[in-house]
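Subject — a protein and its fold
Encoding — discrete vocabulary of local shapes:
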Amino acid sequence: MESVAIRFDDAAFDRVVHNSLALREGGDVCFVVKDHATTGGKPAVVITFSVALPNGEIATAQAVITGELLIVAGRAMEGRFAYLGIPR
């Protein structure tokens, strides 16, 4: 089952970004949507981005979530940014 976690946590952000054991990301995030992907016929989204492996090879990482979860995550971030005074 797909899930999404949203953390509004500066220290956790810094740990993830600066974790020396994490694979270096390439910054080329892509959202690919399939309109009828779930067994119930609802949309799903695969989020892809490149990572540099320890040997220097570039690979693609991915995560799949439902369209509904992506919308929920976006709305949560929108609410947080509004709380911080950042306009839409």
